[in-house]
C-alpha cells in the first residue's frame, strides 16, 4: 500500500491509443503529448543477442532500408499485439521518453482496444502495459473512446454512430447509455488500402514498391471516388522484369480503382450496422449523422462516398488522428462520469 501511494504520487495517469500504424499518448492534465509510428527497429548479433536500436519515427525511416542484422518491426497487426516483447519494449520507450526518469514511475494507464478483440488478445494488452511499468491498466473499446473524444453524449439514451478507420481495423459502432448497442470490428483499414495499391502497381506496371511509397501515394492522390482533377504522382520502385530501379507516373483514377475493394468492405460494414440498429436509435442517426474518426477517415472523398451511399449526414471529427486517444484521456479527466465504459 505504501509503495502504491509513493509511486502514484510520482506518476501521471496516461491514455494510450496503441494503434497498428501509430501510437498516441495522452497525459492527464497535459493532453496529447506523443504521436509516433508503431515501429521498432531491432538489431540481432551473435555477441549481444537482440536489442532495440530505434523506436517510432526513427524506426519507421528504416522500413525496407535495413541490413540483415537490423529488422524494422511493426509489433501491432490488425489492431492487436502480434509481437509481445517488441510491443512491451515500445511502450517502455514511450513511457520513459515522457517521464525522463526510470524510478518511481508507475502510471495508471487506459489502453484503447478494438471492440472485436478476444479475451486472449485483451490479456496480452494488459500484460504488455503492466510489463512496461503500469501500476493499473484499464481497457476501453475504441469506438467508445472515439465517441467521447468527439464530444458525443454517450451517457444519454440517444444514438451515436461512430466509424473509426485506423491502420489495422475499422470499428463501426452504435453507442447509447455508455454502452455499445451494435459493433463490428473489420480488419480492413489503412494497411489494407496500402496493400491494395502495392498489388495494383505490381500487376499493372510490373513495379515493386514498399509500404512507405504506397502510403505516400494514398495520402497525395488517393481518393475513394473519381474527381475532376486527375492528379499524377511519380512512383519509384524496382522493375520486376528488368530488375532495375524504374519510375512510373500513376494517376489518381488508378488509385481509386486500386482501393475500390477495401472501400467497398467498409461501406458494407456501415450498411450492416445501420440495418441492425433498433428503429428508435436509427431515427437519432438520421438527425445526428455518422461520425468519422481515425487516420483512414482522411482519405479524400471517403465522407462523400459514405454520405452518398447512406443518404445520411457524415461528419469528420476535428482531429481524427487524435480523437480516440483524447477520448481515452477524458476517461481519466472525468473518471466518475465514464467509469462504466471501462472493460473488466
List its traits.
single chain; 344 residues; alpha+beta; 4 domains; six-stranded mixed β-sheet; five-stranded mixed β-sheet; 13 helices; 39% helix; flat
Can you walk me through this structure?
- This protein has 344 residues and is an alpha+beta fold.
- A hairpin with a 3-residue loop joins strand 2 and strand 3 (31-37).
- Strands 3-2-1-9-10-19 form a six-stranded mixed sheet, sandwiched between helices. Strands 13-12-11-17-18 form a five-stranded mixed sheet, with helices on both faces. Strands 5-4-6 form a three-stranded antiparallel sheet.
- The chain is flat, with a radius of gyration of 21 Å.
- It has four domains: 2-35 and 85-144 and 325-343, Nucleotidyltransferase, domain 5; 39-73, no CATH class; 153-188 and 261-319, Nucleotidyltransferase, domain 5 (2-Layer Sandwich); 190-260, Alpha-Beta Complex (Actin, Chain A, domain 4).
- The relative contact order is 0.15.
- The chain has helices at residues 2-9, 57-60, 84-99, 119-131, 142-149, 190-205, 211-221, 252-258, 260-276, 279-288, 302-310, 323-333, 335-338; strands spanning 14-18, 22-27, 31-37, 40-45, 49-55, 70-73, 76-77, 80-81, 108-113, 136-141, 160-165, 170-176, 179-186, 207-208, 232-239, 245-251, 290-293, 314-316, 342-343.
- Helix 6 (190-205) packs across helix 7.
Amino acid at each position: 500500500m505504501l509503495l502504491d501511494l509513493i509511486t502514484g504520487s510520482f506518476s501521471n495517469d496516461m491514455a494510450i491509443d496503441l494503434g497498428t500504424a501509430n501510437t498516441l499518448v495522452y497525459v492527464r492534465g497535459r493532453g496529447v503529448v506523443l504521436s509516433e509510428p508503431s515501429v521498432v527497429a531491432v538489431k540481432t548479433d551473435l555477441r549481444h543477442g537482440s536489442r532495440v536500436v530505434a523506436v517510432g519515427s526513427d524506426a519507421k525511416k528504416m522500413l525496407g532500408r535495413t541490413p540483415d542484422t537490423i529488422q524494422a518491426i511493426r509489433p501491432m497487426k490488425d489492431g492487436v499485439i502480434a509481437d509481445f516483447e517488441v510491443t512491451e519494449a515500445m511502450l517502455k520507450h514511450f513511457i520513459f521518453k515522457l517521464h525522463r526518469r526510470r524510478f518511481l514511475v508507475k502510471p495508471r494507464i487506459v489502453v484503447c482496444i478494438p471492440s472485436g478483440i478476444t479475451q486472449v488478445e485483451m490479456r496480452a494488452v494488459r500484460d504488455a502495459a503492466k510489463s512496461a511499468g503500469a501500476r493499473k491498466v484499464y481497457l476501453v473499446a475504441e469506438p467508445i473512446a472515439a465517441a467521447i473524444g468527439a464530444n458525443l453524449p454517450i451517457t444519454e439514451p440517444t444514438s451515436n454512430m461512430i466509424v473509426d478507420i485506423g491502420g489495422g481495423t475499422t470499428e463501426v459502432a452504435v453507442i447509447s447509455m455508455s454502452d455499445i448497442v451494435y459493433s463490428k470490428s473489420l480488419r480492413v483499414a489503412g494497411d489494407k488500402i496500402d496493400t491494395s495499391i502495392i498489388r495494383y502497381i505490381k500487376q499493372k506496371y510490373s513495379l515493386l514498391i514498399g509500404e512507405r511509397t504506397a502510403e505516400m501515394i494514398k495520402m497525395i492522390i488517393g481518393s475513394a471516388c473519381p474527381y475532376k482533377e486527375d492528379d499524377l504522382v511519380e512512383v519509384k520502385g524496382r522493375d520486376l522484369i528488368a530488375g532495375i530501379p524504374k519510375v512510373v507516373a500513376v494517376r489518381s483514377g488508378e488509385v481509386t480503382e486500386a482501393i475500390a475493394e477495401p472501400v467497398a468492405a467498409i461501406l458494407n460494414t456501415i450498411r450492416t450496422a445501420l440495418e441492425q440498429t433498433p428503429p428508435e436509435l436509427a431515427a437519432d442517426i438520421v438527425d445526428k449523422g455518422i461520425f468519422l474518426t481515425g487516420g483512414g477517415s482522411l482519405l479524400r472523398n471517403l465522407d462523400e462516398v459514405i454520405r452518398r451511399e447512406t443518404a445520411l449526414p457524415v461528419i469528420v471529427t476535428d482531429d481524427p488522428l487524435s480523437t480516440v486517444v483524447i477520448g481515452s484521456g477524458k476517461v481519466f479527466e472525468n473518471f466518475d462520469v465514464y467509469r462504466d465504459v471501462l472493460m473488466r
